[in-house]
Amino acid sequence: MNEIKNALTDYAEEFTSGESDVLRELREHCNAHYEDKAMLSGFFQGRVLATFSRMIRPKVVLEIGTYLGYSALCFAEGLADGGKVITLDVQEDTNKVARSFVERTEFAKAIEFHLGNAVDIIPTLPETFDLVFIDADKPNYSNYYNLVFDKVRPGGFIIADNVLWSGKVLEADKDENAQALHDFNQMVQGDSRVSNVLLPIRDGLMVVHKN
Ligand SMILES: C[S@@+](CC[C@H](N)C(=O)[O-])C[C@H]1O[C@@H](n2cnc3c(N)ncnc32)[C@H](O)[C@@H]1O
Fold this sequence. Notes:
Structural class: alpha/beta
Bound molecules: S-adenosylmethionine
Helix content: 40-55%
Radius of gyration: 16 Å
Distance between the termini: 38 Å
Largest sheet: 7 strands, mixed
Strand content: 15-25%
Order of helices and strands: HHHEHEHEHEHEHEE
């Protein structure tokens, strides 16, 4: 079963448009130098996020969890003219690397970095968001959703990564992260203000459309 799944994943990647040279270099840099390399969205999910962005054509994207800037660059591909990606992270070292890669692209001026705790930063942001990507500390997913909700325009989207948590959301005895993600999924599913779909792509993407 896993063999077929792996072969189909390879097939899907083979019939998916390529990423930019800078994105490929960033992925390779991450694989070569970072132990927590699984944090980066990766090729296929990156193309999915870029495609969502190209479909939505957002003016303002908020990303919670920059890491090395891979997904921020993917979202930037779909920005409307004059649009921007605001990306938040607490880690200074990875932020420096993210900035250095972003500076080499046409999106250098379109990606705005904020360093600090997202819980503190979000309430200070005056913008209205067309698209929010939640991809930071898992216990705060529900907090992030509630903090951003009123700042998302009607018709806007919230996308949350890792909502299947390597299948651990199914376990009876869930660890803290799995429980937080399961609680988040339940909260979204029970929210009458939205339509949502949980896509089993990579580690699970919850895509939420604000009515
Ligand atoms: C999974 S990585 C983000 C990956 C990136 N979005 C991508 O797809 O390439 C999660 C990031 O969230 C950051 N993070 C964790 N807790 C945070 C917090 N409270 N505020 C802001 N960023 C946080 C971590 O430092 C880490 O870089």
